[in-house]
Amino acid sequence: MLNVRLLTLVGIVLGAAAMRLIPHLPNFTPIMAIALFGGAYFANKKAAFAVPLAAMYLSDLFLGFDGSMPFVYGSFALTVCLGLMIQGRCSPLRIGSFALGGSVLFFIITNFGVWLSGSLYPRTVEGLIACYIAAIPFFGNTLLGDAMYTLVLFGGFALAQRYSSALRKGPAPVLGGNA
Fold first, then answer.
1. What pTM was computed for the model?
2. Which helix (H) or strand (E) holds 108?
3. How confident is the model at residue 169 (pLDDT cuts 50, 70, 90)?
4. Whose CA is closest to 37, among 54, 51, 24?
5. How far apart are CA 161 and CA 96, in angstroms?
6. Exposed / middle / buried, residue 62 (Cβ in 10 Å: 0-12, 13-18, 19+)
7. More confident call, 164 vs 128
8. pLDDT value, residue 176
9. Residue 138 — φ and ψ, nearest 5°?
10. What gap in Å lies between CA 22 and CA 40, rounded to an integer?
11. Crossing angle for the helix pair 31-41 and 92-117, nearest 10 degrees?
């Protein structure tokens, strides 16, 4: 039997990941919101990580990869962990706080990765500081994108739950069991 809630959640995550493929402002993407949403709504921890990571990977097949990708995916996985901490206790304040935390986490980790894996900055403390300073203008777009996509994903799903009883039943189980 098809699980409407699970299929809806997977569809939301894949749809949001597809948004990375359309033209957008630098760093104005749904990355963090997808990870937070996946952690908050997939009951099975494997699915909470696998579905958002697979969606991210699929969009990266079109966008390309670079040396900082382990840091991007690492921060993405940590943001899924933040979402797991929201599970079953979603409130606007809690979601907003964790979204802000995910944005800061992404900024710190990915810019460290740019500094460590690239050749733009010397591998000194001064180079690391210069890397973070150069990234500050992009952080505004990160915060705005994360806020907008978090609102759309969490708010949209809450609205859908209001009108569909099939979506209201706790976190979605994974196909084939509840392991």
1. 0.87
2. helix 92-117
3. low
4. 51
5. 19
6. exposed
7. 128
8. 41
9. -75, -25
10. 26
11. 130
